[in-house]
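testing teh design pipeline on a random one, pls ignore if ur not involved
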C-alpha cells in the first residue's frame, strides 16, 4: 500500500464522512474502508462516494486501526485535503471587521475526546475559532475529528506554539482574555459581563491553565457548582460559557 496520509489529514467515522459528502465532497481525496460492508447505512456511504467520484480503497481492519490510531472508526477513514491552520495574525485579520467574537483557547487538553467535543460545542454555539498549542495538548487526530462530528472541518483552527504570547496578541487587538479557573478569587461566570470580543481560556480538569497564562488574563471566572461534584467536564464547561456569552452578545 502507498504511504499513508498524515493523521491531521484524516477523519473517521460514519457521521463525519456523511457530513463531508453532503456539504463539502471536494474536501475528500480518498476513502478507505474494509471489504464487504453490507450494512444499509455503510452501503449508502459507498454509493454516495461513487456518485461524487471519490476513490475508495478496500483495506484490512488492521490497516484502518493503524491509520486512525483507534478502533472506533466504524470501518471508514477518509483522507481530506490538508486543513488550513491559521496563525494568530492571519486569524485576527480574518475577523477584523467583526464587532463581536468569542474565541476559545485550549491549554493542556490532552484527551482527544474532550478536544473533539469542545470543537463540536464551539461550532454549534458560534465560536469564531479555537486556538491550541501543538506542544501542550492533543493535536488534531482522527479521534478528535470523529468526536467533533465534523466540526473540525468547518471551524477556523489556530494551531500555534506559544499560548502566552497569543494571549497578548489577542489583547492588543481588543480582546479581553478570561481564564476559567476555580481559584477563590474567580468571578461568578453566571453574573459576569462578557466583553463583545472575548478570548475564553480553558484548561484540563487535571492540569488546569498554566500560571503564566492565568497571570496574563484580564479576569478569572468560574462556574459555581450547586451539587456535590466539584467541577464540570471541560467540554461541558465550554458549552455553558459559550451560552452565557451568546445570551449577552449573540445576534
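output:
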Amino acid at each position: 500500500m502507498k504511504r499513508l496520509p498524515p493523521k491531521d489529514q484524516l477523519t473517521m467515522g460514519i457521521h463525519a464522512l456523511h457530513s463531508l459528502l453532503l456539504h463539502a465532497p471536494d474536501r475528500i481525496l480518498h476513502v478507505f474502508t474494509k471489504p464487504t460492508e453490507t450494512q444499509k447505512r455503510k452501503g449508502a456511504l459507498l454509493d454516495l462516494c461513487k456518485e461524487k467520484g471519490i476513490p475508495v480503497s478496500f483495506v484490512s481492519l488492521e490497516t484502518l486501526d493503524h491509520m486512525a490510531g483507534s478502533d472506533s472508526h466504524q470501518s471508514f477513514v477518509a483522507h481530506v485535503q490538508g486543513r488550513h491552520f491559521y496563525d494568530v495574525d492571519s486569524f485576527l485579520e480574518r475577523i477584523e471587521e467583526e464587532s463581536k467574537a468569542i474565541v476559545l483557547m485550549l491549554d493542556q487538553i490532552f484527551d482527544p475526546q474532550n478536544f473533539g467535543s469542545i470543537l463540536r460545542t464551539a461550532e454549534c454555539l458560534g465560536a469564531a475559532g479555537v486556538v491550541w498549542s501543538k506542544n501542550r495538548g492533543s493535536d488534531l487526530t482522527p479521534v478528535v475529528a470523529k468526536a467533533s462530528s465534523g466540526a473540525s472541518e468547518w471551524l477556523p483552527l489556530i494551531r500555534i506554539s506559544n499560548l502566552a504570547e497569543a494571549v497578548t496578541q489577542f489583547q492588543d487587538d481588543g480582546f479581553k482574555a478570561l481564564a476559567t479557573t476555580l481559584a477563590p478569587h474567580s468571578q461568578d461566570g453566571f453574573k459576569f459581563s462578557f466583553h463583545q470580543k472575548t478570548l475564553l481560556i480553558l484548561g484540563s480538569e487535571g492540569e488546569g491553565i498554566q500560571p503564566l497564562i492565568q497571570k496574563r488574563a484580564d479576569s478569572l471566572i468560574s462556574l459555581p457548582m450547586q451539587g456535590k461534584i466539584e467541577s464540570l467536564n471541560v467540554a461541558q464547561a465550554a458549552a455553558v460559557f459559550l451560552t452565557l456569552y451568546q445570551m449577552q452578545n449573540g445576534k
